[in-house]
Amino acid sequence: MEERKGQDPDPCYRREFDAKVVERGPDYVVLDQTLFYAEGGGQPDDHGILRWTGGEANVPRVTKEKGVVKHHVDRMPEGDDVHGVIDWERRYKHMRMHTSQHIMSGLVFRIYAARTVGNQIHADFSRVDFQPANFTAEDLRRIEGECNRVVDAAMDVRIFEEDRVAVQNRVEDRALLDLIPQSIRRLRIIEVGSADYCPCGGTHLKNTKEIGRVNILEKRSKGKETDRISYELLPP
């Protein structure tokens, strides 16, 4: 979503946009602006359609290489002007999952001092790896309950940029800032009410009430004091 310029999640809710083709590859096009999210950071890519006068192409994959977003298409657009349409059902499921993952990661860090060392979002379930962790059944019930309390609190979600030094002073060990190149001095922040504050480039909700219900499916040990929690979201 390279067109993100706002300080709130509104761009995440935009479903259509106009753009120009600036580069063509064997099976992809690069646009001068886009709302398609490229796969990365544990979040899958957006899918959708590119339309032009007289035709359209499916976009089944979106990747990012060296800062360039590539829209992989099943048909090459004719001309330079295109109209992009996001697969909203897929996008919205990822938004619900990603915001809920931040809630879970934030509260597990606060309560158990366990960092999120890995995560993968899917449309129907997600998983988060925590370390150090050895959660009991009681812990899982507490985590699920705390997540749903945040959902019920209808907390607003803010997206904004902040200086890297200020972020470092605030997040401590909550985020793996060492994985972000030092050359990046301003970071995009996701703040979920009082529940979480963390650098993130993904798509998110406006309010936690849109999540629905967090339902933990299982916990698995991944070794080295690492536990993986898998969960699903029930409808709001």
Radius of gyration: 19 Å
- Low-confidence blocks of residues: 3-8
Percent range for β-strand residues: 35-45%
State the strand order across the main sheet.
4-3-7-1-2-6-5
Distance between the termini: 26 Å
Keywords:
single chain; 236 residues; alpha+beta; Elongation Factor Tu (Ef-tu), domain 3; Threonyl-tRNA Synthetase, Chain A, domain 2; 2 domains; seven-stranded antiparallel β-sheet; four-stranded antiparallel β-sheet; 4 helices; 14 strands; 22% helix; globular; disordered N terminus
Helices, strands, pairings?
Blueprint: H1 10-13, E1 16-24, E2 28-31, E3 48-52, E4 55-59, E5 61-65, E6 68-72, E7 81-86, H2 88-112, E8 115-121, E9 126-131, H3 137-152, E10 157-163, H4 164-171, E11 186-192, E12 196-199, E13 213-223, E14 226-234
Antiparallel strand pairs: 1-2, 1-7, 2-6, 3-4, 3-7, 5-6, 8-9, 9-14, 10-11, 11-12, 13-14
Helix pairs in contact: 2-3
